[in-house]
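Renewal narrative, Specific Aim 1. Our central claim is that a sequence can be written position by position from structural information alone. The example that follows is taken directly from our test logs and has not been curated for this report. It begins with the structure tokens describing the chain, in the order in which they were read.
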């Protein structure tokens, strides 16, 4: 028993060291945002996707590109615009003629066929094009005609978007928002951080990041996350948190019934547990706790709750409601 506990502690320590090495390497290029870098990496280790929201110019695209470099993964970027079509993302079937003059149909893979896919300014395109990502994000496959093509693991979509109140944007449908493990908010840099950004980006040499590990090491870290045990009472706490976002349930907090129109799906509970497992490992523990899930609750639930008219009129935001739910959930 003691030997098993020592082995679990050792695995957690190795996980933490590898994780910190990656975050530190990304930090050579990205100024500040260490918590957000950690959260993006958490999504990757949980086999999930992340939605990054912030005003232009705060480093969202650079962060994604740098992370792919550190992990030596195939990277592709799609700039979402109003005229972008679904086939521009997934690929399309075209007519090919060989040197002998015979013709055949051949599927040309789109930019979705990469390990790390940056969907830049995803809310600039129409819902039809946004929905082209749904199958890839959930099933890790792309279907063209009657043929289904599998995407090579690891696979993650990191989508950036401008705040919804900006002009020329299309809010993402709830079904697509639910596919993102986390929604991460980028604050504007502080004065000191802005000074460092200017020093780094206006000099002769731009900072670069080196390769830290590859796909095999990353997949091994994913397995470690999945192997973290969860006690029944901790699992039940995740269930209660999600149920308390549902306004139609009798036991939901009063703020949920008053301000929320739709609550979280079961994917919210999955995000709480998987994200919490990573937090546990980073704390040197090979077991999930309630506090681990509390730490990721805002990232996991803020995009899975839809305010009703009263909530919008009162100027509520879902982060405030998550705070209230955490207080009320025993």
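The sequence written for that structure reads:
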């Amino acid at each position: 028993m003691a030997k098993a506990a020592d082995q679990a502690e050792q695995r957690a320590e190795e996980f933490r060291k590898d994780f910190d090495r990656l975050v530190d390497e990304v930090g050579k290029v990205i100024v500040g945002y260490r918590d957000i870098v950690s959260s993006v990496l958490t999504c990757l280790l949980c086999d999930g996707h992340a939605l990054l929201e912030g005003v232009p110019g705060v480093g969202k695209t650079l962060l994604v590109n740098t992370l792919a470099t550190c992990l030596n993964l195939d990277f592709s970027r799609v700039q979402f615009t109003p005229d972008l079509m679904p086939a521009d993302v997934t690929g399309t079937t075209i007519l090919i003629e060989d040197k002998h003059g015979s013709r055949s149909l051949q599927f040309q893979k789109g930019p979705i066929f990469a390990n790390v896919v940056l969907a830049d300014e995803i809310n600039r395109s129409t819902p039809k094009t946004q929905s082209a990502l749904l199958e890839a994000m959930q099933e890790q496959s792309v279907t063209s005609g009657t043929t289904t093509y599998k995407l090579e693991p690891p696979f993650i979509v990191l989508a950036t978007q401008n705040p919804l109140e900006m002009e020329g944007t299309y809010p993402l449908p709830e079904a697509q928002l639910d596919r993102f493990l986390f929604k991460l908010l980028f604050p504007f840099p502080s004065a000191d951080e802005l000074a460092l950004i200017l020093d780094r980006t206006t000099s002769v040499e731009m900072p670069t990041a080196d390769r830290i590990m590859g796909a095999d090491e990353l997949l091994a870290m994913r397995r470690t996350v999945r192997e973290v045990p969860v006690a029944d009472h901790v699992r039940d706490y995740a269930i209660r948190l999600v149920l308390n976002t549902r306004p139609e349930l009798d036991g939901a907090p009063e703020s949920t019934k008053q301000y929320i129109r739709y609550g979280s799906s079961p994917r919210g509970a999955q995000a709480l547990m998987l994200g919490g497992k990573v937090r546990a490992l980073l704390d040197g523990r090979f077991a999930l706790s309630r506090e681990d899930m509390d730490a990721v609750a805002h990232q996991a639930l803020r995009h899975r709750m839809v305010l009703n008219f009263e909530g919008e009129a009162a100027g509520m935001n879902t982060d405030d409601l998550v705070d209230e739910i955490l207080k009320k959930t025993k």
